[in-house]
Design goal:
- Strands 1-2-3-4-7-8-9-13 form an 8-stranded parallel barrel, surrounded by 8 helices. Strands 5-6 form a two-stranded antiparallel ribbon.
- It has 11 helices and 13 strands.
- Helices cover 40% and strands 18% of the residues.
- By secondary structure, it is an alpha/beta fold.
- The protein starts with 6 loop residues before the first strand and ends in a 10-residue tail after the last helix.
- Strand 5 and strand 6 form a beta hairpin.
């Protein structure tokens, strides 16, 4: 089956999410400029198209500051900067995005390399009900797109009332970068259908993914829009399936169950619909943690959010990714533990076999 090239992204652990043994803190893998920079450099030299720079206000280091710095330390890889809408003033964020995009192009690539992952967050210390929080996110996406497309903004919304000219500084293309966004609740799905460009999903059984894609296509069409689809998963690839499964077991070999639960509870998204779906996937898996062939849910015992890994030999991993591509997935955001080492393994064993390019 012929496809357009898909985008293959890696993940830089800005939010203290890097381990050799899940649930066992490792001082050498804590989020820092040096450590997270090294992951990005590894991903760029390995040939990845893009890298997610995640964001949390309690964990790790600041994403926007990191994105600006890493923009000047890279030449080719795209940067997917996560922004937490509850903490931003969209007008200032538009200028930050345009500025960082310019910085990515100044280093020899000649093109703007910044993309944006929108997170529908609360303001630290506040708790907005879900409908209002997502309504605010839809407003923010509209404001960002209008300003970054170089258009005058006259926006009289519930959360912002603005009548302003676009910022003088533009992105290199003069257009808003693609907005990536994920969420499974009714409010999240509607917000995505109205405002985002790439809808991101966490791992699930293939029939569940197919149903989500069908639902989101229909929702977007009702708003006169189309979406592209992305898939976020952890990765354990080894020369043989037996080695990969052994490594998966090793990752969990020092995890205390109570500690795993505490890590999950500490995360800001621990009560979300998406996280509940990851828990259900884990609970419905076989005794060895596999929800379907080569999809292992064990990693979710020690982290909130994306809770499953594709585990196997290079051909099995490739077949899994190809199956997702056949369903309409065009972007993958992958990660593994430890992040730099697993990026190298995937880059050597799987990436050369995939037709891939930035979205």
């Amino acid at each position: 089956m012929s496809h357009n090239p898909c985008e293959i992204a890696w993940f830089s652990a800005l939010c203290d999410d890097d381990y050799e043994f899940l649930g066992v803190p490792d001082a050498g893998l804590k989020s820092s400029w040096e450590h997270c920079r090294d992951i990005v450099v590894q991903a760029e030299s390995g040939g990845f198209d893009n890298i997610l720079l995640p964001s949390g206000y309690e964990l790790g280091i600041d994403t926007t500051a990191f994105a600006a710095a890493i923009a000047t330390a890279t030449r080719r890889i795209d940067l997917l900067m996560a922004v937490r809408i509850g903490e931003t003033w969209p007008v200032q964020l538009a200028r930050q995005i345009a500025t960082i995009d310019r910085m990515t192009a100044a280093n020899g690539s000649g093109r703007g390399r910044l993309k944006v992952n929108i997170i529908s967050s609360d303001m630290p210390g506040e708790k907005l009900a879900s409908p209002a929080r997502y309504a605010r996110t839809v407003e923010a996406m509209h404001i960002l797109k209008t300003l970054l497309n170089g258009e005058h903004l006259d926006h009289q919304g519930e959360f912002w009332q603005l009548n302003i000219a676009p910022p003088r500084v533009t992105t290199v293309s003069g257009k808003a970068p693609p907005l990536y966004f994920g969420g499974l609740s009714e409010d999240a799905r509607e917000a995505a259908a109205k405002g985002c460009d790439v809808f991101l999903m966490w791992p699930d059984r293939q029939e569940v993914i197919a149903a989500i894609i069908a639902d989101m296509k229909a929702r977007a069409a009702r708003h006169g829009r189309t979406l592209r689809f992305g898939y976020r998963a952890h990765m354990i690839v080894r020369e043989t399936e037996a080695e990969a499964r052994l490594y998966a077991d090793r990752l969990l070999s020092k995890l205390d169950a109570d500690q795993g639960a505490a890590i999950r509870a500490k995360s800001l998204d621990s009560t979300s619909t998406g996280v509940a779906a990851q828990a259900a996937l884990r609970e419905g898996a076989s005794d060895d943690g596999y929800a379907e062939a080569n999809l292992w849910t064990g990693v979710g015992r020690a982290r909130s959010g994306c809770g499953a890994a594709i585990v196997g030999d290079p051909d099995q991993v490739l077949a899994k990714l190809d199956a997702y591509r056949a369903m309409g997935i065009e972007a993958f955001i992958l990660s593994g533990y430890p992040h730099a080492a697993e990026a190298d393994l995937f880059a050597r064993h799987v990436l050369p076999k995939i037709d891939h390019a930035p979205l």
